[in-house]
Design goal:
The protein is 62% helix and 8% strand. By secondary structure, it is mainly alpha-helical. It has helices at 12-24, 47-60, 78-97, 104-108, 112-115, 122-125, 133-154, 156-178, 188-208, 218-231, 239-260, 270-288; strands at 3-9, 30-34, 37-43, 110-111, 183-184. Helix 3 runs antiparallel to helix 7, helix 8 (156-178) packs across helix 9 and helix 8 (156-178) packs across helix 11. The protein contains twelve helices and five strands. The strands form two sheets. The protein has a three-stranded antiparallel β-sheet, with helices on one face. A two-stranded antiparallel ribbon has the order 4-5. The protein has two domains: 3-60, Hypothetical protein rpa1041 (Alpha-Beta Plaits, 2-Layer Sandwich); 74-288, Rhomboid-like fold (Up-down Bundle), CATH 1.20.1540. The chain starts with a strand and ends with a helix. Strand 2 (30-34) and strand 3 (37-43) form a beta hairpin.
């Protein structure tokens, strides 16, 4: 059985109260303690029903709402992460082999002047290219981690589609800000876009759990700290691309927040989002190589 975290808090009494409410209404829920927090777990197939039951309980008892949408089980994010890593490895291999007699690096690099001459696909192809194995492995590792975490909020297909689009927008914005010739490759723009999405989603959860003062901003501050630690060091680091990726991710997450507030359940059509992501990447490379 796969579980979803319906609610978590440092307040064991509140978690126990919600657990009793669910058990009294026929749900097989239970509490686990990890670190300083208590987690209320429920079978993920019944998570939405349990969430609505607790909302009803809170409304009847006129309490401040402290619930957030139930998180997807973490297993839901792994397939997308595997496919992300596989896609980067495949493009890396094709580029090394100069498949079809093409120089993939030249054809796919985010060339600022060419992007604004109409070669928009470079904002996407550049995300799949890397300078060396260390560059590739680092982006696979951090990208997979952040992608899995974003998947907990909106599902794997929607998460990777959003990360891809935010990464492409980050490359476009980076090219615009330079105004002169600038070349950029690497999935790091997309990685930091995922970090930006994650920060805004986590901040939204912080509001939902009714935190006070600076503590509610802790998730966003944490992602900014990671941006500073991971995104501003190294000889060949394109700091501006990391910043624009993070900013684009934050903006993408805000769009999702608006959409999710109008929905009564989790994001549908995960397969459609996943397929669109694949089609966009394949189309971009088809245009780049012709």
């Amino acid at each position: 059985m796969s579980y979803a975290a319906l609610f978590h808090s440092i307040d064991s009494a509140k978690c126990q109260e919600f657990n009793l409410v669910l058990q009294a209404t026929g749900f097989d829920s239970h509490l686990v303690h990890s670190g300083s927090r208590y987690y209320l777990l429920i079978d993920h197939e019944r998570a939405e029903q349990a969430y609505q039951q607790l909302r009803l309980y809170l409304s009847e008892n006129a309490e401040e709402e402290v619930l957030a949408k139930p998180l997807h089980p973490i297993s839901k994010g792994f397939l997308g992460a595997y496919l992300y890593g596989l896609a980067l490895l495949i493009v890396g291999a094709f580029s090394s082999l100069k498949l079809f007699g093409q120089n993939w690096q030249n054809q796919g690099v985010a060339h600022s002047e060419k992007i604004f001459d109409g070669e928009w696909w470079r904002t996407i192809t550049a995300l799949t290219l890397h300078a060396d194995a260390a560059h590739l492995i680092g982006n696979i590792g951090f990208g997979a981690l952040f992608g899995i975490l974003v998947s907990q909020y909106i599902g794997s297909g929607a998460a990777w589609f959003s990360i891809l689009i935010a990464g492409a927008l980050g490359n476009a914005l980076n090219a615009y800000l330079y105004q002169t010739l600038h070349l950029s490759i690497g999935a790091s723009t997309m990685v930091f876009a995922a970090l930006g999405i994650l920060g805004v989603f986590a901040l939204n959860d912080r509001y939902a759990y009714a935190q006070r003062g600076l503590r509610r901003w802790a998730p966003l501050i944490a992602t900014l700290a990671l941006l500073g630690f991971l995104g501003t060091t190294g000889e060949r680091t394109d700091v501006m691309a990391h910043l624009t990726g993070y900013f684009s991710g934050c903006m993408t997450a805000l769009v999702w927040m608006t959409v999710l507030r109008r929905m009564e359940s989790t994001v549908p059509a995960q397969g459609v989002f996943a397929t669109l992501s694949l089609v966009i990447v394949v189309l971009a490379w088809a245009l780049a190589l012709t």
